Structure formats: C-alpha cells, structure tokens
Automatic annotation (TrEMBL):
Protein name in UniProt: Glyoxalase-like domain protein
Superkingdom classification of source: Bacteria
Matches recorded under Pfam families: Glyoxalase_6
Domain (VOC): residue spans on this chain: 6-124
Natural source organism: Aeoliella mucimassa
InterPro entries given in the database record: Anthracycline_SecMetBiosynth, Glyas_Bleomycin-R_OHBP_Dase, Glyoxalase_6, VOC_core
Gene3D superfamilies: 2,3-Dihydroxybiphenyl 1,2-Dioxygenase, domain 1 (3.10.180.10)
Amino acid sequence: MKRLTGIGGVFFKAKDPKALAEWYRVHLGMDIESWGGMSFSWVTPDNPTGTGSTVWNAFPAETKYFAPSDANFMVNYRVADLHSLLAALRDEGCQVEDKIEESEFGKFGWVIDPEGNKLELWEPPAGS
C-alpha cells in the first residue's frame, strides 16, 4: 500500500497570525488569501496537470487544533487511502486518533508520532 503521497500543508502557531501573514506577503511575495493562508499549486510526474496544492497557514497561538500535541506546528501529509492507512497504523501500534473528518475538502485523520507531534493525514477529494 502506498502511504504518503506528498505534503498537503504546513501549519504553525503564531502570536499574531495576521501580522505574520502580512510579513510573508510583503517580504516573500506570498499571495495570502482571505482565510489567512496560501495554497502552492504543484506539478509532479503523477500529476502533470498540476492538480493539487500545499497549504501554508499560521494559526492563533492558543489554537487547540494541534492538541494533544504541545508542538507549535503540524504537518499535513497527503495520503492515497486514509482508512486503510489508519488501520495499518493502528495494527502497527501507533497512536491514532479515533476521529475522522470527511467533507468536500476530503478525508482527514490524525496520528501522534513517538515524540508527541500530531500529524494530519489527508486524502484529497477525487481529482485534486
């Protein structure tokens, strides 16, 4: 089974997400969208049309979205088959959260690495 297919996003905590996003806009030329982050579109040999993206987003410092991790960041990894991967990770003794979210944005699940970092696993909707 193919597990990870890429990085879907990098998320981190910031004391002032809006000010930090503005710094990235001004100094690095990032096109910050109204939701506070940016999507980088990409092309790969498996994806010659460039369908797909990697998201960058600063979260408020007090966010609970990364819990139970105390880390100031969370990496979102693209996966081919979320349900199969989560089952395999459970079978391998990994700490997998019971919650799975499914929406028009795809399927999301979470696993905690041995150092307590929460990783988001994302199966994009078909065609993206």
